[in-house]
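Note on ligand handling. Small-molecule inputs were canonicalized before submission; formal charges were left as drawn, and no protonation-state enumeration was performed. Where a ligand contained multiple stereocentres, the stereochemistry in the source SMILES was retained. For pyridoxal-5'-phosphate, this procedure yielded the string shown in the input block below.
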Amino acid sequence: MTATPHHAFKGPLGQEDMPYLLTPGPLTTSQTVKLALLADWGSRDTEFRQVVREIRSELLRLAGCDDTYECVIMQGSGTFAIEAALGCFAPSKRFKTMVVANGAYGERAAQILGRIGRNHVLVSKSDVTQLSPSHFTDKLDEDRNISHIWLIHCETTSGIVNPLGDLARAAKQRGKIFMVDAMSSFGGMHIDMVRDEIDVLVSSSNKCIEGIPGFSYVLVKRELLEASQGQCHSVVLDLYEQWKGLEANGQFRFTPPTHSLVAFRQALRELEFEGGVAARAVRYQRNADTLIKGLAAIGIRPLLDDNEAGPIIQTFLCPRDNNFKFEIFYDALRKRGFAIYPGKLTKRDSFRIGTIGKLDQDVMQRVVVAIKEVLSEMNVKDMAPAGI
Ligand SMILES: Cc1ncc(COP(=O)(O)O)c(C=O)c1O
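Structure output:
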């Protein structure tokens, strides 16, 4: 079965053959977000500056922020904002940052801290362990020099969702600065920075808001941002200077990704039209449920239990049948109009299917049918998961 093409543009670029992106971003976007790209915008133009203002205030509103928070946009992918936030807010002298990791993105944050020479401790859990306060409170009580905590909301390595409110509360009860990488969850799962006393949150343009790649952003308590003056290891990634520039005249210090920002403004309006984060979360959850149920019916098992897996990306265990080869599976699905994602687990053979983006239950049902057909074509019969 071939997927119905979802791109309106026909013509020399061949977009009509592009697959649905079943990935955690870049992801499938709406026609209207793509259409927003079809104009040239001057980076210092008054109307463009209005776009930037609208984006900054809408992001703060979505995160439940009050007027003690600021939004700073940073050019580049999500990791640019992560490195910027760590460079600006992670302490550099006596105090240190604790990274609590349960997957590759947590490990990477620790790697960045190491590279930029910031004191840190890494508490590393397996990529199938959902984080709980008990994983780090002892360490916090023991080492009084830990002043900051960094962790990941949805660890995209497996799709596991860590209980943000509980983790933030445990940190705040001990007076710590709480920083979260909500890259893959923000906009698709409810987050309230004021209620949960989250000091810093990082995400990017091509995730659950359903924009295109090009920039990332940091939502942060203003007092932290003010205190970060002169702290950043990098000129380009300096959030304080970036903020000062945006506040002074609404302009970026260096060339902004104009098209990406304009498309993102359109994506934000479409999020609102859909019913906000609550409605989007329901759609994503329905996508995930449809996929998991459909694949369970043919014997493909998800890695995580229901209460751990979020609606963002689903990890499935590869069948142990010798005829299963991920590359062949991928190519055959790609030909049918679906681009899936390889696994990233350290210990088990797996593949991932993103359930975010401009996708619905109907697309998910068609993915399930396509997977069934491809496995039969590959003569894969034994669906039991490959061992550890
Ligand atoms: C949780 C998380 N953190 C960080 C990143 C890195 O973002 P980027 O690849 O845009 O730099 C990703 C990317 O998917 C992610 O899911």
